[in-house]
Specification:
Length: about 120
């Protein structure tokens, strides 16, 4: 699996989230969602294609490869579990979402596994 740093994880997670809401995801959709310029997104999409994390068809529709999807789903799961935990201890939905975005990239595998296990029986 390719090594992807925090910024790259955020792009891949964004593509995953958009792909669940839209029939076709394009660079402009990623740019709009993330608040970045289209040239900035274009540079990252070129890197992701080179690294085998996405494919892009002639129409510019982005698809995560198996490797890209694996990374995106791992980050998304972390985001969801951390956000759920924060809401369960009284943090408001919007703040929990923002804080989970920060925490999802830095939490260790061990700590995340324990948090996930702890949260498995809790509704928030």
């Amino acid at each position: 699996m390719a090594v992807v740093h925090e910024a790259g994880e955020m792009y891949l997670e964004t593509i995953l989230v958009l792909s669940r809401k839209m029939d076709a995801v394009r660079s402009v959709d990623v740019a709009n969602r993330m608040g970045y310029s289209r040239p900035t997104i274009s540079v990252m999409m070129k890197k992701f294609r080179r690294d085998g994390l996405i494919t892009m068809n002639e129409a510019g529709h982005i698809t995560l490869t198996d490797s890209g999807r694996e990374i995106a789903e791992r980050v998304y799961e972390r985001h969801e579990v951390i956000s759920k935990f924060l809401r369960s201890i009284g943090v408001g939905r919007e703040q929990a979402y923002k804080d989970a975005c920060l925490m999802e990239h830095d939490i260790s595998d061990e700590s995340f596994a324990a948090l996930k296990e702890h949260m498995s029986g809790i509704d928030a």
